[in-house]
Amino acid sequence: MLDYMIYILAFAVGSILGLVYSYKQHGEPFVADSDFNMPAAAISIIGWCLAFNSGNVILSAIGFLLGGFIMGERPGYGRKETAVGLILAILLYILLKVTV
Amino acid sequence: MNLMADILINVIIAFLAGSLLLGLHRKVMARVQKRPGPPIVQHLIHSLKFFFKETAIPKTVSKVFYIGIVFILALIWVVGVIVGPVAHDSLLILFGVYAVYKIVEHNAGSSSGSPYGKLSCVRAVLSAATELPLFAAIVFVYLITGSMNIGEIISYQSVHGPLIFSIPLAALMFFMLIITKSPYSPFAITKDKALISGFETEHFGFLRGFMLFSESIAWYVLLWVFLTIFFGPLDAVGYLIGMIVISFITGFINATTPILSPNHSVMTQITIGAICFFGSVLMIFTGVVA
């Protein structure tokens, strides 16, 4: 259970950091349709792929931290990036399951 | 692993997972109502924030009770974690935890000295109707599996398949309890917004922090027990998906239904409970359930 605690802690800390960072970046009122942010998408893809597919507690925890960082951004931001990251990570997981 | 370490790890997981799930629940409700909603992590931040806020104690409270009840609330849900995810012990103890929770709700309201708290305390007695279907659901689980022990129920399901397929109406009764305990539920008569925050109204600062801490653990334990006793042996991913799906469903239900008046709430719960009870009895005696 210790590994799950580390994952969920990493995700929660990442989300809080993401929220704080995002409010520093975007002080404007709620934006319903934000632009797609490429660096954020890259972090999200790396994060979720590491989280689901690394097979190592520390790397997975770093992955959850990065994934949580983008997912935890203020409402309206980080949604599309999280969706892309999650879809790619799940596809990679299925591919690895099928091929290995 | 050391038992104390196991308990601590499970309590931390229960608190974090419960908070995030309640945050998700709020987000789903907001999206259904076409609002952006708070971030998912907001419930967790909210809970932590209260531990650092100033704690004021109103003059009208019954002090020892007013403070003590909050720790009892936190303690009973820690017991819930120990009985469920840690020890896989008896369902009857969990039923006892719910019974004590009802008393805590009642006493938190009555010790506050506030009229809102007192009205909520009276409603806590009425809402004991929620616990009857829970007890009935536990009885059916016992009738089918021959055991109250969660570990043995899991073993039974690994051989005979998940109980949701053999006693679906009992699962529905349990699910009604989940809806009742979810935030902004149509059955949450003790936390009706007409009573401000019900029995929690007069608890401030770290006392409210403990209440929110307990709320998160309670949500996790409730979902864990439901998934464990009706969906068979699950791995971590199964629990995660199950808990997210149930939080989504309750979020949808709560976002689209208004809170019922106390009598309607109790009658609805008892009616659904009675239909499911007699339906389950019928299924067992007519041989639908093997």
Description:
The complex is a heterodimer of chains A (100) and B (290). Chain A is an all-alpha fold and 100 residues long. In chain A, 76% of the residues lie in helices and 0% in strands. Chain A is built from four helices and no strands. Chain A has helices at 2-25, 38-53, 57-71, 79-99. In chain A, α2 runs parallel beside α4 (79-99). Chain B is mainly alpha-helical. In chain B, 73% of the residues lie in helices and 0% in strands. In chain B, α4 (91-111) packs antiparallel against α5 (115-126), α9 runs antiparallel to α10 and α9 runs antiparallel to α12 (262-285). The longest helix of chain B is centred in the first third of the chain and has 30 residues, at 3-32. Chain A binds chain B through residues 1-2, 4-5, 8-9, 11-12, 15-16, 19, 30, 32, 71-76, and chain B through 1, 6, 9-10, 12-13, 16-17, 19-20, 36-41, 44-45, 236.
- Give the mean pLDDT of chain B: 86
Main beta sheet strand tally, sense and closure of chain B? none
What is the strand tally of chain A? 0
Count of runs of 4 or more consecutive helical residues of chain B = 12
Biggest sheet architecture of chain A = none
Q: Tally the helices of chain A.
A: 4
Instruction: Report how far apart the termini of chain B are.
Output: 39 Å
Unreliable stretches covering 5 or more consecutive residues of chain B = none
Largest interface: A-B, 19 and 19 residues
Structure class of chain A: mainly alpha
| H/E element order of chain B | HHHHHHHHHHHH
Identify the overall geometry of chain B: globular
Q: How much strand content do the residues of chain B show?
A: under 5%
Gross morphology of chain A is flat
Cα-based radius of gyration of chain B, to the nearest Å:
19 Å
The parts of chain A where pLDDT drops under 50 for at least 5 residues are none
User: Compute the gyration radius of chain A: what is it?
Assistant: 14 Å
Approximately how much helix is present in the residues of chain A? Answer: over 70%
Structural class by secondary-structure content of chain B: mainly alpha
**What helical percentage do the residues of chain B reach?**
over 70%
